[in-house]
Every structure is written in C-alpha cells, then in structure tokens.
C-alpha cells in the first residue's frame, strides 16, 4: 500500500491517499497565532483498521512540529492518538 499525506492549505486540511486515491483528511483551522485546532479526522471506512488514520495523524503532527506550531485536538480520534502517542503531547497547546 502506497500511502501519502500532504498538506492542502487551500482546503485547510491534511489529505491522505492510498495508491493515488484520496481516502481521508484531517481538517484544521487557525485558532490564534501558532495554534491550530484539529476538529475532524475522516478516513474512508474501507480503510479502517489498516493504520491509515494513524499515519495521517502522525505525518500531520510531524509537519505541525516542523512548522513550530501547537495544536488543540478537538476530534476524539485526534485526542486519542495524542494520548496513545506521548511523543506528540508536547504539541498540545496549553492555554
């Protein structure tokens, strides 16, 4: 499975594709300078349980870190991902 995650700033989301086909996204919007809200993560049900949503979150948060930003994970999946992956807890905005 060829999985690719790309930022689509014109749509305010990270998009994930599998073998060239778009299968999901993680929406974001700017709350304040340097802080992104993550309100919704969605992946095609045909790809559930295959690690696609986790890869989407991992690569999205890696990009957020590279940009020096923080996040507010609103979506329950995003919240659970950060809880299960403590290496990303430093990205959560405390405010």
From TrEMBL:
<feature type="domain" description="N-acetyltransferase">
    <location>
        <begin position="6"/>
        <end position="93"/>
    </location>
</feature>
<dbReference type="InterPro" id="IPR000182">
    <property type="entry name" value="GNAT_dom"/>
</dbReference>
<feature type="domain" description="N-acetyltransferase">
    <location>
        <begin position="1"/>
        <end position="95"/>
    </location>
</feature>
<dbReference type="InterPro" id="IPR045057">
    <property type="entry name" value="Gcn5-rel_NAT"/>
</dbReference>
<dbReference type="InterPro" id="IPR031165">
    <property type="entry name" value="GNAT_YJDJ"/>
</dbReference>
<dbReference type="GO" id="GO:0016747">
    <property type="term" value="F:acyltransferase activity, transferring groups other than amino-acyl groups"/>
</dbReference>
<dbReference type="Pfam" id="PF14542">
    <property type="entry name" value="Acetyltransf_CG"/>
</dbReference>
<dbReference type="InterPro" id="IPR016181">
    <property type="entry name" value="Acyl_CoA_acyltransferase"/>
</dbReference>
<protein>
    <submittedName>
        <fullName>N-acetyltransferase</fullName>
    </submittedName>
</protein>
């Amino acid at each position: 499975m060829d999985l690719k995650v790309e930022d689509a700033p014109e749509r305010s989301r990270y998009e994930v594709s599998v073998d060239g086909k778009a299968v999901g996204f993680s929406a974001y919007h700017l709350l304040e300078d340097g802080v992104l809200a993550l309100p919704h993560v969605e992946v095609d049900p045909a790809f559930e349980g295959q690690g696609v949503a986790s890869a989407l979150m991992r690569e999205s948060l890696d990009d957020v870190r590279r940009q020096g930003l923080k996040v507010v994970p609103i979506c329950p999946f995003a919240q659970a991902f950060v809880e299960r992956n403590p290496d990303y807890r430093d990205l959560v905005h405390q405010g």
